[in-house]
Queue: 2 jobs
Job 1
Amino acid sequence: MLTPASTFRRGPLPAPTDKATAERILDIRRWTDKLITVRTTRNVSFRFQPGQFARIGIASDRGGTIWRPYSMVSANYDEHLEFFSIIVPNGAFSTKLALASVGDTLYVEKQPYGYLTTSRFVGGQDLWMLATGTGIAPFLSILRDPEVWAQYDNLLLAYSVRHISELAYRNEIAAIAQDEPFAEHGHKLRFAPIVTREAVPGMLNRRLTDLLHDGELEKSIGLPIDAERARMLICGNPQMLDDVRQVLTARGFRPDLGRAPGHFACENYW
Ligand SMILES: Cc1cc2nc3c(=O)[nH]c(=O)nc-3n(C[C@H](O)[C@H](O)[C@H](O)COP(=O)(O)OP(=O)(O)OC[C@H]3O[C@@H](n4cnc5c(N)ncnc54)[C@H](O)[C@@H]3O)c2cc1C
Ligand SMILES: NC(=O)c1ccc[n+]([C@@H]2O[C@H](COP(=O)([O-])OP(=O)(O)OC[C@H]3O[C@@H](n4cnc5c(N)ncnc54)[C@H](OP(=O)(O)O)[C@@H]3O)[C@@H](O)[C@H]2O)c1
């Protein structure tokens, strides 16, 4: 039984080795001065569902370990783990992560968490994934899950950032549909990149909420959000989640609440 995300607490653990494993950083990619990807070793016993997150820990200068939740970017069958992180000015965890080097240790809690997974939904043929900023992370893992490609007729991804330089993983997203296991279904994936603070040819340039409200997102993607077919996962900025919830509710979509199946589920990043 998974621990519900709502019971997640920050704070020190007794000792990293009790509840977590020590993993080694294998690679670091710096997308901008505020965005970083860290790849680590993966303990063979660590299992997760695409879309879930782990609590990861980094040694603090003052002794102890600083813990934060992070979605897994990597596929659940990859030998490594990958995390995509914002670097927040003065952020206790992320400023430490920004200084990390290959070979350093990251702790990964043995228990994964979270319900931003497709297994929560009853039915549905179109999987809509809406992300702002680093909220793209869980969808990168979900998009590399062969079961998702088999289960859904259409995979629709909208990913909003302020500036084009922050549209991390866009080449990887384009490449997924051509990857060996997915290529025969490659046409299922449609990607709508959104850049809100500069005009980029071929990319949408207004907020997700506005695009959902007036139907431009659907027009651009070429598929309506149909109440019978659509299941939606939404991740990132908490204000965006509140605003999107309002737009979707006004359009007649319902949150998926476990005992009352619905159309959409959200994950707040802060
Ligand atoms: C379930 C869950 C999964 C998460 N997964 C990720 C992930 O995959 N990648 C990731 O970068 N973060 C993720 N976060 C946020 C992450 O846990 C930390 O908050 C973040 O790394 C900053 O840590 P910090 O200690 O530096 O600053 P904190 O003290 O934790 O945060 C300080 C402030 O920074 C801002 N902030 C925090 N996180 C973000 C963010 N991701 N994007 C934009 N602004 C932010 C908020 O204003 C916040 O109040 C997740 C959070 C939750 C609850
Ligand atoms: N990215 C930067 O250059 C930068 C610089 C300094 C500080 N920061 C800080 O870093 C943190 C994260 O920045 P971020 O750019 O990763 O995340 P962000 O502020 O959540 O922005 C990411 C995307 O989400 C959109 N968005 C934000 N709120 C929304 C809402 N209510 N409805 C619909 N769309 C919404 C943004 O559009 P809009 O552009 O319309 O907001 C943008 O396209 C913030 O706390 C920010 O103050 C970022």
Job 2
Amino acid sequence: MGQTLIMTDGSQPTHVFDWDFRDADTKEGTHVIHSYPAMMIPQVARHLIALLRRLHPESQTLLDPFCGAGTVLVEAARQNLEAWGNDLNPLALRISKARTTPIDDNRLRSQLSALSCRLTPLALAAWKGPIPVFPGRDFWFKPEVAQALAFVAAQIREVADADVRDLAWIAFSETVRWVSNTRNGEFKLYRLPSDKLAVWNPDVLALYRGLLARYSEGLRTFNPELRQAPVAPRIVSGDACELSEVPDRYFDLMVTSPPYGDSRTTVAYGQFSRLSLEWLGAPSADARAIDQRLLGGKAVPMPVNALPSPTLQVSLAQIAQKDGRRAREVEAFYYDLDRAIAAITRKLKPGALCAWVVANRTVKRVVLPTDRIIAELSSTRQFSVVDNLTRNIPNKRMPLANSPSNIAGDTGATMTREHLLILRYNGGRQ
Ligand SMILES: C[S@@+](CC[C@H](N)C(=O)[O-])C[C@H]1O[C@@H](n2cnc3c(N)ncnc32)[C@H](O)[C@@H]1O
């Protein structure tokens, strides 16, 4: 099975194998560190980067403006590229940092075994420290669980090495998700039903120690390659519609998977991160405000010029016939996506290659072909399409048949296929 990359610039086609990666281990090395919604499959990131490098051999720098948990950054660093990641979600930035930072084996082992030794049930029973207060704490955590989490957090603060401490905090964050009263396997915050809650008695210390062991094993596997990166990946906090922390005309490659739509009706990154961020000490208001700050989180400023994508305009008109308000919400998302394309354009060197990994959603039973929409929006900024590959999504934890918003009729069967859209930037020359 394979797909052939058709080169529109006349150079030799490149043979690409099956992109489905049906049986791939998606938790290799540091990719095991912390779950995150809608992550890119590491194998997709790895082979896309390798493909782009074959097409643009002198590439040295790569940008992921929606870096999430850092899948692309890890794979770029392993391929000796200088990688920059940008995201608005502080939890995503911390996970990306933990996944891309090599730590000397001896240092890691000695610091973590000291931490593990302090995490005993006896020490927990004797501990009388304060438990953080935040809105909803007692709704989402049983008292003994909150007590154990506060105890673990106090021990993490004692870890001397900053990189080891960051890794320990990220294992803590994943523990928070597992031991809370939320239904596991959901990105949104849903409380366990009362019968399950009555018998919910997670062993915080054992879970935490288990995660630390898995993370350090993953780090040991990728350490040698991460260490070879020319410079450590730069991970910055910023709005992809502005990219103000990222240098202009600096990047040979851009590889990213943007959100599928606004957080309210697709993936709620803010809700996913909120309890972790509360425990990690982020101000409660910040932890709650993330979703409004992400793509499509705000209403479109009026009056708005129609975005230069005929495909989008057709889809919006069809949605508007059924629900005008919904059409404006969808438009708000693409309005932000267009601003992100404009910001990314400023960051690219002439001749740079971009890979967008996108799935097409359906709203009110109208398909939104985001791959074609991105290609059309980009063509007005001097991008040309190199190719548009497709892959099946074998077992991604994404809504397939039902609306993630639980709004009946909002979303039909969708997102079983993903597009890998490859564009070349032909502008930027003086
Ligand atoms: C599909 S996820 C990226 C997943 C990533 N490729 C990975 O493998 O972990 C999309 C990311 O875009 C981020 N995001 C959404 N809107 C943003 C914005 N306006 N500026 C920066 N990041 C944004 C979300 O926080 C989320 O982490």
